[in-house]
Amino acid sequence: MLLKINKKSCIPYNSFYFYSMKYILYTTVLCLFFGFRPPKNTENQIVLDTPLKTENSLLWQISGNDLAQPSYLFGTIHIINADSYHLGKNTQKKLEKSKALVMEMDINNIDVSAVTKLSLLDSSKSVKDFMSDSDFVILRTFMVDSIGIKPYTFDIAYCKLKPFYLEQLIFFRYMHDAKESYEENLTKIAQNNTISIVGLETFEEQLKFLEGIPIESQLKSMVETIKNYTSETQKLDQLIKDYRNQDLNALMKSFEDEEDITQTDNLIKNRNTNWIPKVKALINSKTCFIAVGAGHLGGKDGLIQLLRKEGYTVEPISIDN
After folding, report:
1. Model's pTM, two decimal places?
2. Alpha carbon of 140 to those of 8, 190, 294: distances in Å?
3. 3-state helix, strand, coil in the chain (%, to 5)
4. Do residues 27 and 283 make contact, with C-beta atoms less than 8 angstroms apart?
5. What span, in angstroms and rounded, lies between the C-alpha atoms of 84 and 32?
6. Of the N and C termini of the chain, which has fewer Cβ atoms inside 10 Å?
7. Number of H-type helices and E-type strands within the chain
8. Phi and psi of 79, rounded to 5°?
9. Which three-class secondary structure state does DSSP give residue 180?
10. 84-103, pLDDT tens digit by residue?
């Protein structure tokens, strides 16, 4: 039996992996020309926001290195409860003035059937085959009593899911029904303003990264989440608080505390490295608004530092001004 997976739960990079990992003054620069001569053509003028004095921001301005116009880097949290959602007026303004919205992947090109197939274990397998009897009882009881899945439905359908997706479901249900997607809302703004949408990865590349997570690592993370549900959901609440506070250092610490370095490398470091040549080509040709998971921005292997190493000036600016 194949489970029907909604596109909203298949956001690139997967916000719930982001959650379960233990655990960016709008002021323009104006060039005024005095005298009684006609004003000069300012078409190629570079207009920059005044940088913030703090690095606590989700919105970053990319300039220098012979760029004709600045581009922007914005950190998202792919799914968030509606009460915590805030895009910011300046964020929207920067997107509306851009020529391209660049995301991890164009969400309009998600192949739902392929995601469904990827989420399932081999046809002859159940998650029970990879777990001790005691851990499976804990899983089944939790999914029935806490998540609200009927025993029969779990046995014939949900137990066929890979642990990675079961864990996503746990966090997805915790957030209840009122949820917002930054990627979906940014996509709507781009479409309403006839802004092209570009993906840094193909759909196949996304699947490759997810497939690279060993089943043992998936099981360990899922079982830890169930056994420590209260503390894990508290970490999720703190993560959302850190995101609302635009505290990149705190967000990065969530990744540094992650025990499985392989997962961190696969889903963060390696992808960032792969994206840089694509980002350079895009921002050298047009003004781009780059929106990726906030976990990709900070740290020595984050996009901010990688772009700086390439010679660009990357500075925090206000999301609201």
Report:
1. 0.81
2. 25, 42, 33
3. 50, 10, 40
4. no
5. 41
6. N
7. 14, 8
8. -130, 135
9. strand
10. 999 999 999 999 999 999 99
